[in-house]
Amino acid sequence: MSILTLENVSKHFGKVRAAENVSIDIREGEVFGFIGPNGAGKSTTIRMIIGALKETSGTIYFKGEDIKKSRRYIENISYVPGDVNLWPNLTGMEVINFFMKMRGFKDVEMRDALIEKFRLDARKKCKTYSKGNRQKVALISALLSDADLLIFDEPTTGLDPLMERVFHQEILAARDAGKSVLLSSHILSEVEKLADRIAIIREGKIIETGKLADLSHITRIEYILSSEDDLSFLEGKSYAHDFRTEGGNTHLMVDNDKVADFMSDISSKRITYLVTEPPKLEDIFMRYYEDKS
Amino acid sequence: MTHFRLLAKQVRFRVIMWLIILCGMSVGFAPVFDDLYSTEEELRSIEATLDNPAMVALIGPLPDAAYTTAVSFSHQMLLFMALLHGIFGILIANSVGRKAEDDGLTEYLISGGVSKRTLYVNQVMLGVLINLIAFVINYAGLSLLGLESFNNEGNLLYSAGLALFGMLFYMLTLFFGALLSSADLTFGITLSILVIMFLYRAVTDVADMAYSVISPYNWLTRMYPYAENDFTWLLPFLLVAVFALAGWFLFSRRDLGGAYLKGRGDRRTRNIGSYPGLALRNMRTMIISWLAGMFVIGLTYGSIFGDLEEMISGNEMLSAAVEAGAIDDPVMFFINMILIITTVITAIPAVMIIGRVLREENTARLEVVDSGTLESRFSRTLVLVTHWILSLLVALIGMVLTTLGMHLASMNVDDIGVTLGDYMLASLNYFTAIAAAVGIGVLLLGLSNGLFKLIWLYVGYMFFVAYLGNLVELPEMLHMATPFHYLENVTVNEMDWVAAGGVFIAAVVLFAAGLFLYRKRDLG
């Protein structure tokens, strides 16, 4: 069952095509990753979903219902933008309470638990908060909600690694409680950790959708190895890319679907050091464009 | 570079701007007074106008001595200028003192080998220096003007009084900066003292000036520059040294960034449960300051109503219009013109309140709150309606306070013939013009975020046509584009309820159209 469906949704600002025929489908109870570099159209798409922007063409359905029919659908979506602005003269607690009132959400214990988990000093005025603290206030406010769909736009920029983990736990907890999550990010590893399915957007267009595992044909992993034997023969292999030696180590990118070939080729060598780097978003794009040409 | 030069460089630009404004006002207004109140008759007339409780509260008690031009200058200017010199002192002291400490600059300096003593002494010296410069400019300026009745002792007292007043609040700010835990708190407390002292003496000056003596403003009053020239009232300003020393005592004995009194960390969490509540909280200070300002503007205009006849006969354009028969009753005509001017001024806060919708939109707070909240508790409609109603309320109350101020300040002037009821009718009448401007603002805001700015051009245009249109022949078309064209000139003529109602209905229609568009358009 789909909770949110975008059907050929486009948004043009004059000549700029911020989003072009975007079609995605988010199912109930899943975490959907929305990846793309900055300026790819992620925020534009999200702002159409929450009704801040009107789509130039196409249709958005929430639980099967065209959102143009009723504004009430928005009551079921909780949203945190990438750049959080709060009212400078209110304290964090006052902002959180205000959001709860606006949402008709009354669970004070959950509020206090979240404030504790995120280690937020909620008594301070928002104007004294750093970007990370403002983000915490917005994340806590968004989680304190009965909404069925949570939308986070670049949620972890500004959070330290510890708080990032807390946030990830909360996302998974929300999913386990049956909620759906749309998580936009330009950090592939974050989305990989959490998302059940992803969509990749670039220059306003969706270029891939599906499970990350299914997308392995377009991902590459970087291997860093060293050996007492000569590894230079790898440079000629069809699955190897960006081969280089650096500080005594051999670096190369290997197509994910050819890992077995790679492994059997090096199995006879005495490998003394092996490290893998997870795929980066840029690599996916590189690979994508190589395939196109 | 020595630390003192670093400090001076840091505030150089701000200090120069302040000195230009402060000394420019004192030295610049002296010739204006000389021009306005030169004859015995003019002086008697202004003295009579200022001799009422409202004006005493606003500018201070009348001196016992003969009311010369110079006495009039110091009487009307001194306390108001003191308020400004006080703000100057507070701002500069806070920025080199507690603000620099909060920002960690002081720590750099200490780690760079500057001792705490040098640091504090230089802060004090800076305060002495900038106020000394203010004294020299004012004293030299007033002396060089060489105006009649501006005697040397008077110039000296006027300039020294203001400089010492500025210095007092400078040292007070250093003192509180050492005592309290943040620059924000220090600014809040010292500014409150500055304002409360002014308000306190406003009350006691009217009731019994003996009680006023607690307020530093009253020390200035009691000097009576140009009249009694009482130098003994410079003595209480020795407090400058007391606060400077007490500040050092506190600063030298505490850690950097520390405090003796902390702000209420566990302040009570206010419960803001609705958008109107939030909007009111965010705009409270702005609204109250504007309303207070409107009342003062009313008092100020009202205080000149006694001199209107002379002023009009001195104005060629106006007296020509009277002779040509275009104006029946010049006083009434002038009061009406002032009403139109104050209407346009009152339109400023009203339009600002509407403009604040855009602040919610541009910071994306609007869309964040909108998603996930119940439509009945938060929506674009609710936001716009909230600001619209607040804006109209401020416009109406602003008009009432302005005209009330005019009425209070001109009660003692005979044969003006405008009753309080007339003023209230005029307020209601011209309120509809503000509502129309606000309506146009909402329409622009509904069309697009960027177009809203044009409303300020329209407000300027309203002012231009209403003000000039009375004096020079302007094409009918220009008049028709402002609401004043349709409204009756209340106080000159009877109120035209149909016209006022019509303008108000047009204002509501403009608002409704703007709302309709705003609900549908893209945000930010």
UniProtKB/TrEMBL annotation, chain A:
PROSITE patterns: ABC_TRANSPORTER_1, ABC_TRANSPORTER_2. SMART domains: AAA. It comes from the Bacteria. GO terms for molecular function: ATP binding. Pfam families: ABC_tran. InterPro entries: AAA+_ATPase (IPR003593), ABC_transporter-like_ATP-bd (IPR003439), ABC_transporter-like_CS (IPR017871), ABC_Transporter_VariousFunc (IPR051782), P-loop_NTPase (IPR027417). Residues 4-228 form the ABC transporter domain. CDD domains: ABC_DR_subfamily_A (cd03230). Keywords: ATP-binding, Nucleotide-binding, Transport. PANTHER family: ABC TRANSPORTER ATP-BINDING PROTEIN ALBC-RELATED. This is ABC-2 type transport system ATP-binding protein. It comes from Salinicoccus halitifaciens. The lineage of its organism: Bacteria, Bacillati, Bacillota, Bacilli, Bacillales.
TrEMBL record, chain B:
This is ABC-2 type transport system permease protein. Keywords: Membrane, Transmembrane, Transmembrane helix. It comes from the Bacteria. It comes from Salinicoccus halitifaciens. The chain crosses the membrane at residues 12-33, 77-97, 118-137, 157-178, 185-203, 231-251, 287-306, 333-355, 382-408, 428-447, 454-472, 497-518.
